[in-house]
Amino acid sequence: MIEDRAPTRYEAAQKVTGAARYQGEVRAAGMLHAALVTAPMPSARVLGIDTARARALAGCVEVLTHENALRIPPAAFLTLLQEPVVHFAGQPVALVLAETPETARAAAALVEVRYAPMPAVTALEQARDEAYAPRTAGLTATDSRRGEPEAALAAAAVRLDHCYTTPTHNHLAIEPQVVLADWNGSDLLVQTPSQAVFAHRAGLARCFGLDIERVRVISPYLGGGFGSKGGAWFPCLVLGCLAAKQLGRPVRLELLRAQMFTLVGRRQETVQQLKIGAARDGRLAALLHDTVAQTSTYGEYADPVATPTRMMYACPNVATTHRLVRVNAPQPNPARAPGEGPGSFALESAIDELAYKLDLDPIELRRRNFADHDQHAGLPWSSNGLLECYRAGAEAFGWARRPSKPGTLSDGRHALGWGMAGACYPAYRIASQAAVRINLDGRVEVRCGTQDMGSGTYTVLAQLAAEALGVPYAAVDVALGDTLLPEGPYSGGSMATASFTPAVEDAARRLRRDLIARAVADPRSPMHGRQPDQVSIADGVMRAGNRSEPLIELLARVAPQGIEAAANAAPNTKPAHSYYGFGAVFAEVRVDPDLGEIRVTRLTGAYATGRILNPLLARSQFVGGLIWGIGMALHEKTVMDKNLGRIVNDNLADYLIPVHADMPRFDIHMLTEDEPHLGSGGVKGIGMLGTCGTAAAIANAVFHATGRRIRDLPIRLEQLL
Amino acid sequence: MQQVAYHRAASEDAALALAANHPGAMFIAGGTDMLQLSKQGVVPTQLIDISRLPLDRIEPRAGALRIGALARLADVADHPDVRRDWPALAQAIAASASPQIRNLATVGGNLLQRTRCGYFRSADLPCNKREPGSGCAARDGENRLHAIFGTSPHCVATHASDLAVALLALQASVHVRGHDSARVLPIAELFRLPGDTPQRDSALGAGEMIVSVEVSRSAAARRSCYLKVRDRASFEFAVVSVAAALEIEDGVIRSARLAAGGVGTVPWRLVASERALAGARAEPAAFAAAAARAADGAQPLSQNGFKLELLRRTVRRALEGLTDA
To answer: What is the Cα B68 distance to its own chain's centre?
Structure first.
C-alpha cells in the first residue's frame, strides 16, 4: 500500500495532546471580553439604544453602537455598527465589552434597542420577480452562451425540462470564529482562525488606515473553515479590532454556535431550471441552465452554479444564467464546493434522467458526451482523466452488475439502489512565496504564510521540502499562518496546495544547489572539485561517487549561521489550457420503502487530480468531501421561518449533519495523472471535488432504488412515502 | 449569561426541602437537557443538584421492574433483565440521543425533558410554552416536526422522549414525592396536554420530583418493541416512533398496547388501533386494520401531513416485527 509510505500528520502529536494552541485558547493580559447584541427581526431601523442598564452592571466596561463606534470605511460585505439599519435577523447592533465573558453576555442581555420594523423579504420566492444579474458568478461570467440553444432544444429528438432546488447550508466548522485583537500603539496583532492571513491583514490595514506592515495576523491552527473563516468572517473580525482600538485594551470576541448561522456566511439557496435536448443516441444537442439564488440586501455573491454545465460535456448549444434575489437574510459566500456542488446536483441528476429516458447506461451516456476539450473556454484540457475515472470507479463499485431497471435490487425488505455522477472542479492556482532554510544542526525550516485548515498543509509543506532538498521528513519544521512569513496562498477554492507547491519546491531546490555549490568549492569538502551535477543529497547526506558527508559537517565549515533560499511562484497570466480535476462517484443507498428512511451504504470515488502528495491526507480530503455530499443529499438545511425572518434550527441538534452511523464504506481511488501545464508541480487541488456530484449520485441511487426522482434537497423521508 | 443559584442536595429529603423553600427552583441530574436550554437562553434561575442521590437502582422484582429516577439511560438499556423482559424500554433508549448522552442522562430527566420545538428553544422567538401569551409561531411556521395529536391553538410542540413512549405502552407508573407528600400516578397522567397553559409540561406540582418508575411484568411487556423513524441514522429525535406490546395466546391477541412518539404534544396512546387488535388473530390483516386507525383524530399542520401515513406504516411495521419468527 502506498499509504504505508505516506508521512502521517505533521502536527498530530500536538493536536492529540492538546499542545497545539488554537486561537480560541489564546489570552492577553488585561483583555476585555466582547458579546454581541443582535437584531431579532429581519429588517428595521434602529430608533435608539439604551445602554444604561448594561453599563451599570459591575464589570461592564463599554457598549459600542452605531452612535459611538469608531468610523471605519466600508469593507467586505458589511461594516457593522456604522448605521442604524438592520438588514437581517441576527445582525449585530451593539457590542458589549466587559471584564469577563459572563459579564459581557449578561450585559448584552440588558441592552435595550428600540426598532422600527421595516418590510422584509424573508424568502427567495417572495421576490422572484426582482431577480437581477450579478456582476459575476464566483470567478466566472454571470451568463454564457454558445451556439443556438433554444432552437437546438426545440429541434431535439429528446427533451427534459426540470427544476432542481438546493437549500441554504451553513459551514459550521467545529471551531467557532474567534479573534483576540491587541494594539500596541499603531501596531495591531490579530490572533484568529483565518483562511487568509494576508487578505485579512490587507483588509484590516485598510480599515484602520495603516501600512500593512503595522498589522500582523496569526493563525497557526484552524478547527475547520469550509469558507467561513475568510471574507465572511471579516465584518466581525474587524469589529473586535475596532473595539480594541477604541478601548485601548486587548479584546476577545468569540461567536456562539447560533451566531455561526448568521454572521460568517452561508451556502446560498438555489432554484435551478435545467433543460436538455438530446439526440436518440444520447448526444447532447442543447443545455440551458438558469439559476436563481439568494443574496443579502446589502451584499452580492453568486456561486458559479453553471460551471459544470458549461464545460463537463460536449454540447454545441449551451446557455447559462445566474440571477440573484435579495432577501433579508445573512450574506451567502463560498461554502465547500461552491457552485459546482449545487450545480452538479442539477446537471448530474438531469443526465441520469436522460439516461433512463433513453434506456442507456448512465456511464455510457456520459462517455458519448465526453468533451475532448473545454468547449466553454475554447481551450484544450491540461489533463482530463474523466474517462478513466468512469472506468476505475465502475470497476471498483461493481457497476457492471447493475440492473438497469429501477426498483429491482433489494436486501430483505429494503430497496437498494445504485447511482453515479461525474465530478469536476477547477484546478486553480495563485501566486505564492516560500522560503526554506537549513540550520547548523541540520534542522530544515519551511516558511510559508498559508494556513492549515486541518487538511494537512503542515505535512505536505514538510514533505515537499524534505523531498526536494534531500533531508528526512522528520528533520523539517514548518511555520505557517503568520503574516511575518513569506506570503502564501489563501486556503480556499482548492488552490492552496497547487499554489505553494512550486514555490516550496523551487526554494528547496535553490537551497540544494547552493549547498552543493558551496561543497564543491570548499577545499575541505570531500566533494571539492566535483561537478555539481555529480553531487546528490539524500537523507541529509551529500554524496558523490563513493564520497559522502553529512550536511551538518558542511554547514559547520561554510555556513554556521545556516543557509536560506526563497522563491516566488506565480501562475501564467494567459493560460493556454483549461485546468480541472475530474472524478466519478458511485453511491449505493438502502431505502425502507414503507418508512422512507434512506441510508447511504457505499460510496466509491475515483479521482484524477494530478500528483497526489500524500495519499493518507488526500484520502481524508476526499472522504470529507463525500461526507459533505451525503449531508447535502440527505441532511443539511438551514430552516428560515418566513413569517419571522428567523432561522429556527440554529444549533447542531436541529441542523442535521451526517453522524458516524450515517457513514457508508468509503472506497477512494486516486488515479495516476500527469499534469504538465498548470505549473503547480503536477498538483491539482482536491478539497472540493469530493463534494461535487455526490448529492446527485445519491439522488440517482434513490431513483434506482425506488423509481422516485427527487429534485429538491435534502431528500426527506416524506418524499418517498 | 444569567446568574444561577446552585444548591447541592445531600439527601432525598434535603432535596425536597430545598425545593419547598425555593419556589421556581428546578432539579438537575444528568443536565443533558438543562445545559442545552441554558445555552439557548431558556434558563432556570435556581438549580437543585440531585445527581448524587442514591436513586439510581434498577431492580427487577417478582412482579415489576422498578427503575430509580436517577438511573442512567445507558444502564437501563444494557440491563439484561430489561433487555429480556421489557425489550421496548431497552430499544427506546438505544434509539435515543448518543452514547455520551445516554451515559449521563437519567430516566427521570428524560421523562421531563422539554420539547425540541425550535421556537421554544430560541430565547426570543414567540412561544407560549416558554413565554405564555407570546403566541405560537410554529402553528403557521416551520412545523414539519410538530404534533398532529393533542395540539391546542396555543401549542403544537411534540414531547421528545423515546423512553416515555415505551413506558406508556407498557403502562408504567411514576412514583413522585413532594416535601410532605408521596403519590403514584399512571405515566399517562404525568404529561399534560398544552391546552391554554402550554408552559406546564407535566402534572408534577411545585417541589415534586420523580423518584422512580415502575413497569409490571407481563407477557405483553416481553413481546414489546420500539420502532423509531428519523432523518438520520442516529442522534436525532423521532419523526415518528411507535412502541407496541402484544399478549398473544393461541394466535389470538389478548391485549395490545400501542403508543406513538413524534406525533403528540404528549406521548400518544393509539387507542383505536389497540381496539382493532384486541381479540383479533395476530395476523397481517389485523395489523393492517390496526394501522389504518392509527391516525384517527389527527390534526395535521401545514408541513406535517405526511406523519399520518407514516404513523400508520410505522404501526404496521412494529406489529409485524413482534410476530416475526
So the answer is: 16
State residue A112 phi and psi, 5-degree precision.
Answer: -110, 115
Here the cell at position A164 is 432542481
Q: How far apart are CA B124 and CA A650, in angstroms?
A: 13
pLDDT at A508 over 50: yes
- Edge-first strand order for the sheet with B252-261 is B224-229, B240-249, B252-261, B268-269
CB-based contact A646 B126, cutoff 8 Å = no
C-alpha separations of A365 from A318, A347, A354, B310 in Å: 18, 13, 8, 37
Q: Quick check: A111 and A94 in contact, CB under 8 A?
A: yes
Question: Mutate which of B101, B102, B122, B136 to test chain A, going by most A C-beta atoms within 10 A?
Answer: B122
Task: Determine which of A105, A597, A598 to mutate to test the interface with B (most B C-beta atoms within 10 Å).
Answer: A597
Give A505-531 as a DSSP string.
HHHHHHHHHHHHHHHHH-TTSTTTT--
Do B229 and A635 count as a contact with CB atoms less than 8 A apart? Answer: no
Chain A partners of B119 at a C-beta cutoff of 8 Å?
641, 648
- Residue B98 falls inside a structural domain: no
**In terms of DSSP H, where are the helices of A283-426?**
307-311, 340-358, 362-368, 386-397
Report if residue B282 sits inside a domain. Answer: yes
- Summarize the confidence of residues B98-126 as an average pLDDT: 95
Q: Look over chain A and give the mean of its residue pLDDT values, rounded to a whole number.
A: 97
| Facing residue for A641 by CB, picked from B141, B230, B309 | B141
Closest listed residue to residue A295, CA positions, set A88, A41, A81, A129: A88
A432-569 CATH choice from 3.30.365.10, 2.40.30.30, 3.30.470.30, 2.60.40.10: 3.30.365.10
- Cell numbers at A76, concatenated: 467586505
Sign of dihedral through CA atoms A394, A397, A398, A399?
negative
Half-sphere exposure of A353 (CA within 13 A, CB side): 24
3-class DSSP string for A408-427: CEEECCEEEEEEEEEEEEEC
Q: Looking at the complex, report in whole angstroms how far the Cα of residue B73 sits from the nearest Cα belonging to chain A.
A: 19
- Under 8 Å between Cβ of A446 and A479: yes
Give A-chain residues touching B3 at CB under 8 angstroms: 106
Tell me the C-alpha to C-alpha distance, in Å, between residue A251 and each of A12, A101, A239, A569.
30, 11, 10, 37
**pLDDT tens digits for range A178-198:** 999 999 999 999 999 999 999
Query: In 3D, which of B38, B45, B49, B37 has the Cα closest to residue B9?
Result: B49
Within 8 A by CB and 6+ apart from A677, the residues are: A382, A383, A575, A576, A577, A579
- A115's grid cell: 426598532
Asked whether the predicted pLDDT for residue A1 surpasses 90, the reply is no
The pLDDT confidence band at residue A3, using thresholds 50, 70 and 90, is very low
pTM across the whole model: 0.98
The pLDDT tens digits for A595-605 are 999 999 999 99
Strands (E) across A664-709 are located at 665-670
Question: Mind listing the pLDDT tens digit for each residue in A242-254?
Answer: 999 999 999 999 9
**How far apart (Å, rounded) are the C-alpha atoms in residues A713 and B134?**
33
Rg (CA), chain B: 19
Each domain of chain A, given as residue ranges in start order, spans 16-119+174-224+229-261, 335-428+575-720, 432-569
Residues B243/B92, Cβ–Cβ less than 8 Å = yes
How much of chain A, in percent, has pLDDT values that exceed 70? 99
Nearest-CA distance A665 → chain B (Å)? 15
* CATH code, A16-119+174-224+229-261: 3.90.1170.50
Cell of A518: 558551496
Judge: A641–B142 Cβ closer than 8 Å, yes or no.
yes
Query: Hey, do A16-119+174-224+229-261 and A335-428+575-720 end up sharing a CATH topology, with the first three levels equal?
Result: no
